[in-house]
Design brief:
Layout: E1 6-12, E2 15-22, E3 30-31, H1 36-40, E4 60-63, E5 68-71, E6 74-75, H2 76-82, H3 85-94, H4 100-111, H5 120-125, H6 133-143, H7 157-183, H8 196-205, H9 216-228, H10 236-246, H11 251-262, H12 270-281, H13 287-295, H14 316-331, H15 338-352, H16 354-358, H17 365-375, H18 383-403
Antiparallel strand pairs: 1-2, 2-3, 4-5, 5-6
Bound molecules: s-citryldethia Coenzyme A.
S-citryldethia Coenzyme A binds near residues 267, 268, 304, 306 and 307.
Length: about 425
């Protein structure tokens, strides 16, 4: 927290309060209201936390108006161009880009934790084959608390570090197992001679009956998707992880809570919902019908993959993914993919429409990611598990930062109560 430089004066009901203000390294100043209830006997009211800074953080900065996303100060377009996912994981977890030696050590530690406890196979087999992979991931990650007892004590820095590495290392294995289980195919073990993205593609798409060669261009595209989804300041699922962690819950339980929150179609589930929407639109000539529905206040339909709580400009991740979509589909010889054609025409139509322009609704990270993932052979049900896999390092980095914060308190919001005031119980015979 920076030194207090100025104050905000709040006057109401004949009272005047001086509230301290703090300035960030970049972004809006904050008004410190921690003493507001004690001094003024009032709460603030901010459902959805549209104007609330819930914590100090040094991990990720977003400028929604400029369409800027920085991880520890490095812009996302440079990281996706010049770095790779495990190096970005190191940056998010430890705050600096690694030296060649520390990167090699980190990659070795992750590689040596990619296998899952063998007995957890039984846990998978308890699910129906048509279970959504996100249901499986939420259950299996939560169940890791029952298998990795030597990394659940959050007060032990060593155990926190081991749990962090285990989560980053095992999420691709768990996601791939959920994919294989739904297909009725055998699980594929990770390989220590493959890079992170190649390992994941092989665990998803190889079968024992034949050799599987990872296409390096698809592996690069996969790694780029991981990097683009790695962290995004205090979004809904990250805030869920922080709130769960503030009670002292173990890291696996906290990440399972984050996975559950990410699943929602307003959040990480939007990539699956977006592809399903593009499929429902079906052809370019039906776009006006769907644009009209998205604008109709009486219709709950929204354009999936459009709009964002913070970005009121292009989501920089969507810009990178749009380029990747063209590359991957051209590589696969499906540049005429109908959903990509509909997506591009929909984007153009929406961005020319006053409703979307006035409300600053631009394509977000979920608009193009699904097109690439579908072209790579993933069913829509695997889109959000891949988002969860990628975001695990962000959740863990934020969780660690919270535990290291000397100001850590259990999160406990208050409310604007609108219910009944005091009344006495009425016996059933008198009702
Ligand atoms: C992610 O927070 C993060 O950082 C999330 C994320 C991350 O990396 O963690 O970036 C990942 O979740 C991306 C967002 C994916 N969700 C979708 O694509 C679902 C579709 N988008 C909407 O549901 C919506 O835009 C949200 C949920 C993303 C943001 O909603 P807000 O900020 O609460 O804005 P709002 O719902 O108050 O909308 C403002 C106005 C409303 O109209 P009015 O009531 O002012 O007249 O814009 C309209 C909304 O009706 N609007 C849309 C719209 N999104 C907002 N209208 C049509 N289609 C849309 N997609």
């Amino acid at each position: 927290m920076t030194n207090k430089t100025k104050t905000a004066t709040l006057t109401f009901d004949g009272k005047t309060l001086e509230l301290p203000m703090h300035s960030p390294s970049v972004g809006p100043d904050v008004i410190d209201i921690r003493k507001l209830y004690g001094q003024g006997d009032v709460f603030t009211y901010d459902p959805g936390f549209t104007s609330t800074a819930a914590c100090d953080s040094s991990i990720t900065y977003i400028d929604g108006n400029q369409g800027i996303l920085l991880h520890r100060g490095y812009p996302i377009d440079q990281l996706t161009e010049k770095s790779h996912y495990l190096e970005v994981c190191y940056l998010l977890l430890y705050g600096e880009l690694p030296t060649a030696e520390s990167l090699e050590d980190f990659e070795m530690r992750v590689t040596n934790h990619t296998m899952l406890h063998e007995q957890m196979m039984n846990f998978f087999r308890g699910f129906r084959r048509d279970a959504h992979p996100m249901a499986i991931m939420t259950g299996v990650v939560g169940a890791m608390s029952a298998f990795y007892h030597d990394s659940t004590d959050i007060n032990d820095p060593h155990q926190r570090e081991v749990a962090s590495i285990r989560m980053v290392a095992k999420m691709p294995t768990i996601a791939a197992m959920a994919f294989k289980y739904a297909q009725g195919q055998p699980f594929v073990y990770p390989r220590n001679d493959l890079d992170y993205a190649s390992n994941f593609l092989r665990m998803c798409f190889s079968v024992p009956a034949e050799e599987y060669e990872v296409d390096p261009i698809l592996a690069r595209a996969m790694d780029r998707i991981f990097t683009l989804h790695a962290d995004h300041e205090q979004n809904a699922s990250t805030s869920t992880v922080r709130l769960a962690g503030s009670s002292g819950a173990n890291p696996f339980a906290c990440i399972a809570a984050g996975i559950a929150c990410l699943w929602g179609p307003a959040h990480g589930g939007a990539n699956q919902a977006c592809l399903e929407m593009l499929g429902e639109i079906g052809s370019v000539d039906r776009i006006p019908e769907f644009i009209a529905r998205a604008k109709d206040k009486n219709d709950p339909f929204r354009l999936m993959g459009f709009g964002h709580r913070v970005y009121k400009n292009f989501d920089p991740r969507a810009t990178v993914l749009k380029e990747s979509a063209d590359e991957v589909l051209e590589l696969l010889g499906i540049e005429n993919n109908p959903k990509l054609q509909v997506a591009k025409a929909l984007e153009k139509a929406a961005l020319e429409d006053p409703y979307f322009k006035d409300k600053k609704l631009f394509p977000n990270v979920d608009f193009y990611s699904g097109i690439i993932l579908e072209a790579m052979g993933f069913p829509t049900s695997m889109f959000t598990p891949i988002f969860a896999l990628s975001r695990t390092v962000g959740w863990i980095a934020q969780w660690k930062e919270m535990l290291d914060d000397p100001q850590l308190k259990i999160g406990r919001p208050r409310q604007l109560y609108q219910g009944e005031t005091f009344r006495d119980y009425v016996n059933v015979e008198d009702r």
